[in-house]
């Protein structure tokens, strides 16, 4: 029995032509440009700073030409909380807090 299914290649499904001048050019004449934007950590900005960041995003998106696609990717880092259990002069509540969250994961 012969295989009658057509084989698909990665190049056919994802038709990249070249990378020139820091732009990705596809075989369909689409251009892709990547930018890295560093945003502040969550809950570290005031309401006015958050509004300024939002308005900057809106301005940047409005100047893009028609048929542009914007993809925003968030980056999360998983770490574990390291408490300082050897501190002197801590209250019972402070020591309990440190023991409770010691080595717990957070993003």
Helix content: 25-40%
Strand order within the widest beta sheet: 1-2-3
Number of DSSP helical runs:
3
Span of the ends, CA to CA: 53 Å
Radius of gyration: 25 Å
Taken from the alpha-carbon principal axes, the silhouette is elongated
Strand content: 5-15%
Mean pLDDT: 85
**What string gives the helices and strands in order?**
HEEEHEHE
Largest sheet: 3 strands, antiparallel
For the secondary structure, the number of strands is 5
**Residue ranges: pLDDT <50 for 5 or more in a row?**
none
- Class by SSE composition: alpha+beta
Overview of the structural elements:
The structure is a single chain. The chain has 107 residues and is an alpha+beta fold. It has 3 helices and 5 strands. Helices cover 28% and strands 14% of the residues. The longest helix has 16 residues, at 47-62. It is elongated and about 75 Å long. The model has no long low-confidence stretch (mean pLDDT 85). The strands form 2 sheets. A 3-stranded antiparallel sheet has the order 1-2-3, with no helix packed on it. Strands 4-5 form a two-stranded antiparallel ribbon.
């Amino acid at each position: 029995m012969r295989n009658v299914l057509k084989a698909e290649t990665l190049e056919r499904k994802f038709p990249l032509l070249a990378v020139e001048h820091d732009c990705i050019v596809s075989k369909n004449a689409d251009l892709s440009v990547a930018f890295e934007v560093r945003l502040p950590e969550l809950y570290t900005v005031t309401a006015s700073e958050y509004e300024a960041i939002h308005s900057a995003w809106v301005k940047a998106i409005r100047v893009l030409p028609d048929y542009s696609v914007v993809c925003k990717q968030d980056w999360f880092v998983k770490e574990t909380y390291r408490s300082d259990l050897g501190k002197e002069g801590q209250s019972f509540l402070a020591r309990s807090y440190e023991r409770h969250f010691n080595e717990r994961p957070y993003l």
